[in-house]
Amino acid sequence: MAIVQDWLVSRGGAEQVLQCFHELYPEAPIYVLVHDEDKAPEWARGLDVRTSYIQRWPGGKDHYRLLLSFMPKAWEALDLTEYDLVLSSCSSCCKGVLTRPDAVHVCYCHSPIRYVWDLYYDYFEGSSAIKRAFMPHMIHKVRMWDFQAAQRVDRFVANSDYVGKRIAKFYRRESTTIYPGIRIPERPVSEERDDYYFALSRFVGYKRIDLAIEACNKLGRKLIVAGSGGEEEEKLRAMAGPTVEFVGRVSDERLQDYYSHAKAFLFPGIEDFGLTPLEAMAGGAPVLAYGEGGALETVVDGETGMFFHEQSAEALASCIEEFERCGFSAAACRARAEQFSREKFKREIAAFCDAALAETGGE
Questions:
Q1: C-alpha to C-alpha distance for 196 and 223, rounded to whole angstroms
Q2: Global pTM?
Q3: Contact 134/142 with Cβ under 8 angstroms?
Q4: CA 259 to chain centre
Q5: Which long-range contacts (CB under 8 A, 24 or more apart) does 134-139 make?
Q6: I want to staple 270 with a disulfide (CB 3.0 to 4.6 A). Which of 171, 234, 245, 293 is the partner?
Q7: How many CA atoms, within 13 angstroms, populate the side-chain half-sphere of residue 134?
């Protein structure tokens, strides 16, 4: 079998899913569009990672996101005919790999391509005049290819019911939801919390970290923001008031410390699933989340967090004030997170792949 992922150049939720796939199938080679060993997770070093020809292009592994129109041909150029089972982890174009007619392709879909489908107009409005001149024609072609590529997949797995609905809408395909898993910390949770809120994210627009900063500026609440990278980092740092602290990229151990002591975790964006709310709850921190997307499937309103229903700083500030008048249990947060363990995720993925092979006569 082979494992396929869009790219391996960062350390995010998709890479955590990929790690689980690798632990399940350690002998399987990993195919990616581009690979940057310096930016990829440490666990991936020394593995059999195979890249597309875009890796060899000048600037390919650094500017791959600008090469969307070239991705379809790059994926179709990879020869996967020796494999009986291909397991892809996809939020972009890797679902379009070509497999043998008798092979099984299971696609674990994090999302249909967001800037091609549901977020196209947001990206279009935020682009320069030059990009807007080219985008409609280019995206139209990619959209047609992406739909065709989705028809090559034998079985779709969605990372949430929210994504499953978009798979049905854009690809006209059925899917099975299997939630990603997180590592459950060994350290016990404490009901004693420090006086700060916490946020963790790449600094890109749809994450809406600006709302967390604005709300805490307005209320004078301490906010610690972890993460780095993205086109909005400079803007976010500039808008931060005296109670907002940026700590950059942090180690796993330090991250657990932040989760374990935060008053609550702020999650103002719309995510397809979102591992960070689960990680926060595993550390005993309630989650204050915008009430749309994957958070609705993980956070229990009034028990492990609260939702606000207008994506604005004012609504988040009101949610924070209401949260501070209520009581939440760190133990209840941990108990909820334990329902989304990595071990459960790997069992369900392995069983799904086995069943898909059995249905087609494979072993």
A1: 6
A2: 0.91
A3: no
A4: 19
A5: 138/68, 138/69, 139/115
A6: 293
A7: 9
Distance (Å) of CA 83 to CA 151, 160, 252: 19, 28, 35
Distance CA 125, CA 324 (A): 37
Radius of gyration of the chain (CA): 21
- And the tokens for 234? 């400079």
Half-sphere exposure of 6 (CA within 13 A, CB side): 22
When mean pLDDT is compared across 51-60, 226-235, 255-264, 288-297, the lowest value belongs to 226-235
Average pLDDT over residues 298-305: 97
Burial of 229 (0-12, 13-18, 19+ CB in 10 A): middle
Cα dist from 27 to 24, 47, 48, 51, 100, whole Å: 9, 9, 9, 17, 20
Q: What is the pLDDT of residue 121?
A: 86
List, in order of start, the domains of the chain with CATH numbers: 2-181+342-359 (3.40.50), 197-339 (3.40.50.2000)
pLDDT at position 316 is 98
Q: What is the pLDDT of residues 23-76, one digit of tens each?
A: 999 999 999 999 999 999 999 999 999 999 999 999 999 999 889 999 999 999
Cα dist from 68 to 138, 139, 143, whole Å: 9, 9, 11
Pairing between strand 2-5 and 305-308?
Answer: unpaired
